[in-house]
Amino acid sequence: MTITLEVDGPVAVITNNNPDKHNAFDDEMDARLFDILGELKQRTDVRAVIWRAEGKSWSSGRDVSAIGVNKTPMTHHELMTRGHRGIQQVWDIEAPIIVAVQGWAIGGSFQRALLCDIRIAADDARFMLPEVGYGVIPDTGGVSVLYEMVGPGLVSDMVLTGRRLSADEALHHGIVSRVVPRAELDTVAREMADKIAASPAVTVKMARRVIGHLARPQQRTSMDDELIYQTFINKSEDFAEMRAAKGEDRRPEYRGS
Question: At what angle do helices 201-234 and 237-248 cross, to 10 degrees?
Fold first, then answer.
């Protein structure tokens, strides 16, 4: 499987396991992830979750050939709604989720990590939101989290120019809470998970709920906006022109509509 779940005592480990493609997500991986999150919602024995990856990158985002292409019988609006509901399950899992990032964390995958509780990074980690360069906008809710962390200047730079951040820059801006050598990433993540799992379960649950109540309204509003605007973009003249120009190997002529 390209994404797996293992439970070791009170700690669950989600692993992105598609290393040949830098753990780029496709529809099959999305469906499996959402099933895993649904299972974790029901497990009272899990007290902490680690979300890690095999290979050089945590996730390079979405396969660029799939951006703007819908191969399912669902409408674009329905597909996005499924994606939002699927990832919002992280909020319903009572165990905190620690994301351990190495290499690239790009696009929607980076945003999914932002919706989790804690992010730590290997020293080779890099973060990027390249969606605008492909004619779409970030649409997984993470931009609202990033805005709270870094403010409008840096988030606009990342979204509008695709600026990449190093692990040290991410630490400086609070996007990750720790940077560790690559060889120690899994060990540190497990130590953190074990410490959380050893604390009183109700205390962890209530602390997480307080933090969540501060963040959720803005995140939900952002995702609602993204659903509407991304659906509009998908049917816009500029998006059609971008795809046509690419297919005809010419410079696009955008009209802003």
Answer: 70
Give SS3 for 245: helix
Q: Sorting pLDDT into bands at 50, 70 and 90, what band is 64?
A: low
Q: What SS3 class is residue 96?
A: coil
CATH code of residue 68: 3.90.226.10
**Is residue 208 in a domain?**
no
How many whole angstroms separate alpha carbon 105 and alpha carbon 123?
13
Say if residues 238 and 257 touch (Cβ distance below 8 Å). Answer: yes
Q: Domain tally for the chain?
A: 1
Express each pLDDT in 210-248 by its tens digit: 999 998 999 999 999 999 999 999 999 999 999 999 999
- How do beta strands 118-122 and 178-180 pair? parallel
- Global pTM exceeds 0.90: yes
Residue 124: domain span = 3-183+196-203
Q: For residue 143, give Cα distances in angstroms to 1, 48, 108, 138, 211.
A: 29, 25, 10, 7, 18
Question: CA dihedral defined by 61, 65, 71, 76, rounded to 10 degrees?
Answer: 60
DSSP state of 121: E
Task: Give the range among 68-82, 138-152, 160-174 with minimum mean pLDDT.
Answer: 68-82
Judge contact between 95 and 142, C-beta under 8 A: no
The answer to whether residue 239 sits within a structural domain is no
Quote the pLDDT of residue 1: 84
Angle at 37 between CA 229 and CA 125, to 5 degrees: 70
